[in-house]
From TrEMBL, chain A:
CDD domains named among the record's database cross-references: GDP_FS_SDR_e
Domain NAD-dependent epimerase/dehydratase positions: 7-233
EC numbers: 1.1.1.271
Keywords of the record: Isomerase, NADP, Oxidoreductase
PANTHER family in alphabetical order: GDP-L-FUCOSE SYNTHASE (PTHR43238)
UniProt record similarity statement: Belongs to the NAD(P)-dependent epimerase/dehydratase family. Fucose synthase subfamily.
Protein name (record): GDP-L-fucose synthase
Gene3D superfamilies: NAD(P)-binding Rossmann-like Domain (3.40.50.720), UDP-galactose 4-epimerase, domain 1 (3.90.25.10)
Pfam families (UniProt xref): Epimerase
GO molecular function: GDP-L-fucose synthase activity; isomerase activity
Automatic annotation (TrEMBL), chain B:
Origin species: Elysia chlorotica
Keywords (A to Z) from UniProt: Isomerase, NADP, Oxidoreductase
Record InterPro entries: Epimerase_deHydtase, GDP_fucose/colitose_synth, NAD(P)-bd_dom_sf
Name of the protein in question: GDP-L-fucose synthase
GO BP term (any one): 'de novo' GDP-L-fucose biosynthetic process
Superkingdom in the source lineage: Eukaryota
Keyword Thylakoid in record: no
Domain NAD-dependent epimerase/dehydratase residues, every copy: 7-234
Similarity remark: Belongs to the NAD(P)-dependent epimerase/dehydratase family. Fucose synthase subfamily.
GO molecular function: GDP-L-fucose synthase activity; isomerase activity
Leader sequence residues: none
HAMAP family: GDP_fucose_synth (MF_00956)
Species classification: Eukaryota, Metazoa, Spiralia, Lophotrochozoa, Mollusca
Pathway in which the depicted protein is active: Nucleotide-sugar biosynthesis; GDP-L-fucose biosynthesis via de novo pathway; GDP-L-fucose from GDP-alpha-D-mannose: step 2/2
CDD domains: GDP_FS_SDR_e
């Protein structure tokens, strides 16, 4: 019988936090695990005192740290300094307060967008610090990279198991469906629903050929549970679907059209840029540790996400 | 008559701060420059309120930011976390308070040890973020690198001219002559004086073959003055003698013995590791700006440093 865990999830109301919640609910509560999903309303993590007050109240033994100031392309470009400083402050507060309160494990959340801009594919965990990140989000990227630097420091100096995961192309309920600053899959879902509602064509940007690995937030949540319970390495681990399950943007759009029940015209606007054809992230480290993990089939995951979208117009972030 | 500069120098009691002072004295004070050399006794820069009080009292228009928690090999090894967090705190306080007080220019001081451990030589300014730094002081190095990240952020977001310089191995009066955590040249000077005094052999660690570029603190000070007045790029500037002035550890040791007047036995302890054979940095960028800058001849710089050492036994940091 394992020791009791009191698990604090910061940024608990976002896409990833909801995925973890869904995984916990689907699995059923485990004896000895007490979950606390918090948001900025429970404590402003930019403020040291507020952070300590939150830890004082909850007394976590474990922390899943998802809270961050995220930007999307346009907000990032101009505000790199603020995004760097604020995220650095949040991360410093959460991690050092965790240490102060003798938290046994902190799992922070990084993203493949923080990797070097100039890189070879597939990307793997060893490459994080090998070059500058993309200019448009350098503030965000460096603040996230410094989590990994601190994790190493806490381990070497204090023996802490503070670690991180690297996720990208996550989708699911509670995503950001804003086409300006959301990601590609929620963008397609939003556009399909809008096209269905107002009778306009559904427009796919680019040729539709680029291939991407998508990970369903529920699957990410299930993997977070495994990381929380079993992963004791302080170096980061990529949580991504297998390269074989990459799909093209066009294939994703077809699945969305199907799931939404859109019967109108589908147009490809090839004047819009494609982005890189492949940006494969290696999940070899994950597969070494979890060779039998089954991801939710993408068709089903997209269907579930679209069903949620249709049923929750008041909750959809637009 | 140019606008008056009120220049705050943090960490001014160290090697570089004294070099700067020596340069000002050599040149003679300029009418439009008012200098304030401060140390931790004037304000604890780890504390935001103390930093603000210092700026309130001095009202600087320019800042030369030298203050840092520095350590030497052994202290760094065990305390990388502290070196990262403390220096990050100091740097954030100084930069943010400078911005708040409308300081026109901040020049921070990085180090060639912050460069990637795996690098192609000669190293130049563009390579700073192109790979992890050496393991032994990764905390210190990442904290320094993040100054450059913030400088870019302050420029992009606020148009600030906050920049940095990257000196190679500095030496001179007021150095740290401690054998455990000082650098190679002051270590050789200390050992030569000790051997002269106690009759024990003078021991050179390693083969003596590794080649290094050194910069005299007075020359660094003169270059800092030029950077303060004329350098308007936000990206860092390496301050070093050219690759043609590299000398081997053995050559440096021989010159020091001759200067100190030590004629006893010289032993090479080849059981000690050499470190990297060459770590050449490029001073091309500096030379484009200052083709005619003359470095103090190495022999003369060593002579002056040894004379200072002999005359100031009470001041020598051991």
């Amino acid at each position: 019988m394992s020791d009791k865990k009191v698990i604090l999830v910061t940024g608990g109301t976002g896409l990833v936090g909801r995925g973890i919640r869904a995984a916990v609910e689907r699995e059923g509560p485990r004896e000895g695990e007490q979950w606390h999903f918090v948001s900025s309303q429970d404590g402003d993590l930019r403020d040291r005192d507020a952070t300590e007050a939150l830890f004082d109240k909850i007394r976590p033994t474990h922390v899943i740290h998802l809270a961050a100031l995220v930007g999307g392309l346009f907000r990032n470009l101009k505000y790199n300094l603020d995004i760097y400083r604020i995220n650095s402050q949040i991360n410093e507060n959460v991690i050092s307060t965790s240490h102060k309160y003798n938290v046994q494990k902190v799992v922070s959340c990084l993203s493949t967008c923080i990797f070097p801009d100039k890189t070879t594919y597939p990307i793997d965990e060893s490459m994080i610090h090998n070059g500058p990140p993309h200019d448009s989000a350098f503030g965000y990227s460096y603040s996230k990279r410094m989590i990994d630097v601190q994790n190493k420091g806490y381990h070497m100096q204090h023996g802490r198991t503070y670690t991180s995961v690297i996720a990208s192309n996550v989708f699911g309920p509670y995503d950001n469906f804003n086409p300006e600053n959301g990601h590609v899959l929620p963008g397609l879902i939003r556009k399909a629903f809008d096209a269905k509602a107002d009778g306009n064509p559904f427009v796919i940007w680019g040729t539709g050929s680029p291939r991407r690995q998508f990970i369903y937030s529920l699957d990410l949540g299930r993997l977070f549970l495994w990381i929380l319970r079993e992963y004791n390495d302080v170096t980061p681990i990529i949580l991504a679907a297998d390269e074989e399950s990459e799909i093209s943007i066009k294939e994703a759009a077809d699945l969305v059209v199907n799931a939404v029940g859109f019967k109108g015209e589908v147009i490809q606007d090839t004047s819009k840029p494609d982005g890189p054809l492949k940006k494969t992230t290696s999940n070899a480290k994950l597969r070494r540790l979890l060779p039998d993990f089954q991801f939710t089939p993408i068709k089903q995951a997209i269907q579930e996400t679209c069903d949620w979208y249709a049923a929750n117009p008041d909750k959809v972030r637009k | 008559m140019p606008a008056k500069k009120v220049i705050l120098v943090t960490g001014s009691s160290g090697l570089v701060g004294h070099g700067l002072r020596a340069a000002i004295e050599q040149e003679g004070r300029r009418a439009d420059e008012q200098w304030h050399f401060v140390t931790s006794k004037d304000a604890d820069l780890r504390d935001r309120a103390e930093t603000e009080a210092l700026f309130d009292s001095i009202k600087p228009t320019h800042v030369i930011h030298l203050a840092a928690l520095v350590g030497g090999l052994f202290r760094n090894l065990d305390h990388n976390l502290d070196f990262y967090r403390t220096n990050t705190q100091i740097n954030d306080n100084v930069l943010a308070t400078s911005h708040k007080n409308n300081v026109q220019k901040v020049i921070s001081c990085l180090s060639t040890c912050n460069f990637p451990n795996k690098a192609k030589y000669p190293i130049d300014e563009t390579m700073l973020h192109c790979g992890p730094p050496h393991e032994t002081n990764f905390g210190y190095s990442y904290a320094k690198r993040m100054i450059d990240v913030q400088n870019k952020g302050y420029y992009n977001q606020h148009g600030r001219l906050y920049t940095s310089v990257i000196p190679t191995s500095v030496f001179g009066p007021h150095d740290n002559f401690n054998l455990q955590d000082g650098h190679v040249l002051p270590g050789l000077i200390r050992r030569a004086f000790d051997s002269k005094a106690d009759g024990n052999p003078f021991v050179i660690w390693g083969t003596g073959s590794p080649r290094r570029q050194f910069i005299y603190s007075l020359d660094l000070g003169r270059l800092f003055l030029w950077v303060l007045r004329e350098y308007n790029e936000v990206t860092p500037l390496i301050l070093s003698a050219g690759a043609d002035r590299e000398i081997s550890i053995k050559e440096a040791a021989e010159l020091i013995c001759e200067t100190v007047g030590y004629h006893g036995e010289v032993i090479q302890d080849t059981t000690k590791s050499d470190g990297q054979f060459k770590k050449t940095v490029s001073n091309d960028k500096m030379r484009k700006y200052l083709p005619d800058f003359k470095f103090t001849p190495f022999k003369q710089a060593i002579k002056e440093t040894c004379e200072w050492y002999a005359a100031n036994s009470d001041k020598v940091r051991k």
